[in-house]
Amino acid sequence: MYFLLILEQTGERLRLEFGLEPYLGLDLGLDLDLDLGLEFSLEFCLKPRPAARLLPLAQLLRAQLMHNHANALTLLRRFSMPRSKYWFKGLFGLVSVMLSAVSLAQPATSAANYPDKPVRLIVTVPPGGAADFVARTLSERFGKELGTTILVENKAGANGTIASALVARAAPDGYTLLQAGISTHGIGPYFYENLPYAPFKDLVSVAAIAEFPIILAVNAQLPVQSVKELIALAQGKQLSFASAGTGSAPHLSGELFKTETKVNMVHVPYKGSAPAVVDVASGQVDLMFDGIPSLLPHIKSGKLRPIAAVSVKRNSQLPDLPTFTELGYPSMVASVWYGLMTPAGTPQAIIDKVNAAMNKALAVPELQKKLEDGGAIVMPGTPKDFEAFYLKDYARWGDVIKKAGISTKQ
After folding, report:
1. Fold assignment, 115-410
2. Is 71 helix (H, G, I), strand (E, B) or coil?
3. How many CA atoms lie within 13 A of 385 on its CB side?
4. Mind listing the pLDDT tens digit for each residue in 88-120?
5. Residue, of 206 and 65, whose pLDDT is higher
6. Nearest-angstrom CA–CA distance, 378 and 386
7. pLDDT(35) > 80
8. Least confident segment among 3-12, 180-189, 259-268, 396-405
9. Burial (Cβ within 10 Å: 0-12, 13-18, ≥19) of residue 47
10. Is 78 helix (H, G, I), strand (E, B) or coil?
């Protein structure tokens, strides 16, 4: 929060000018203007007795003020050095009253008028890859249903924790959404213990979007055509596998494969699927587990060869590709999923409005086809449905990590 404070005093007359950005702007003196559509005009002549009468009201509203404007109060105390205790009490009391009024009025106004500006959708990976494909495929229709523009922003790094931290610290007003996924709320929390935010407390569920069954693909020059041949090759040669990042679903799928088949491979983590797939396609890394949107273009170009689907059912985009379950590895089941989350404290009315817009967008046949053509399975539902889904997936991956003996030390 940016805070600017300017004080001018002439005798007993006080002029106070300060701004709180990006939330509101205040100009207090003979005229007071609030960016919430409220207008006040006053002449404030500071004297000890009126200031003392004002203080109890300020104290009464201070709890609400402290919740939303703690930084402002800290700076106010730091920079408002009083000439007398009455001067400070009057100043602090007046600002407390005004900011408290803003605190109380703002949520209702925001919920009623939401959205009245573009909404940021923060994606956890670079452009390209499954996550980016989902965000950019649905952004236009989602924005149309919500009644605003959706601005897709890629904030890659640390397996989604950089993007998640950004959203967790954002204002809880519905204008900054996180496209969360298995990396941020299914597996990632096991690998990142000292996060600057609490994944399951500072971010709350809004809507599920879609999931992608994972497949295994190898560089086309690798001399294998099946899982059996890959295992045989790995037993006599050190192979490497790429992933979208440490603690991602592709990473743990590879680790699970190593445990199930008793082979050893070197893990090569990247910042997102896109750069990882490029290196597998070029032969710098031997193979990769990932969602089909990242792999399919390179499979079609002949640079990658699909080996098996990490799912119970065959993928509609590659119907001839066998599943690990069919091949005798029933534990090899995983998917990459995505959904919307928002900072804790966002009004429920806003969450419900965003959820309804997402469900309407996912119900549009044209959008469904685009997602399904990319290998996705849409997941409409309520915020509670999404919460139950990712908490179950989180618990499941915890069991997999423990049973496979995978180290979560970073």
Report:
1. D-Maltodextrin-Binding Protein; domain 2 (3.40.190)
2. helix
3. 12
4. 445 445 544 444 444 444 444 467 899 999 999
5. 206
6. 12
7. no
8. 3-12
9. exposed
10. helix
DSSP 8-state symbol, 303:
S
Burial class of residue 230 (count of CB atoms within 10 Å of its CB; 0-12, 13-18, 19+): buried
Beta carbons within 8 Å of 50's beta carbon, 6+ residues apart:
90
d(CA 135, CA 360): 15
CB 190 within 8 A of CB 331: no
In sequence order, what are the residues at sequence separation of 6 or more whose Cβ sits closer than 8 angstroms to the Cβ of residue 253?
214, 216, 289, 310, 332, 334
Over range 364-370, report the average pLDDT: 95
Compute the distance between CA of residue 341 and CA of residue 338 in angstroms, rounded to an integer: 10
Q: How far is CA 37 from the centre of its chain?
A: 31
Q: Is the pTM of this model over 0.90?
A: no
Helix (H) or strand (E) holding 349: helix 348-362
3-class secondary structure, 151: strand
Q: Residues 6 or more apart from 148 whose CB is under 8 A from it?
A: 115, 116, 117, 118, 119
Tally the C-alpha atoms within 13 A of residue 380's C-alpha that lie toward its C-beta. 12
Phi, psi of 323 (to 5 degrees): -95, 160
Provide the pLDDT for residue 19: 38
Residue 303 sits at φ, ψ, to 5 deg, of: -85, -25
| All CATH 3.40.190.150 domain ranges in the chain, comma separated | 115-410
For the chain, the C-alpha Rg in angstroms (whole number) is 27
Alpha carbon distance 348, 174 (integer Å): 10
**In whole angstroms, what is the distance from residue 8 CA to residue 192 CA?**
49
Q: Token pair of 83, please? A: 């000439």
Instruction: Say which residue the tokens 């469904």 belong to.
Output: 368
pLDDT, position 6: 34
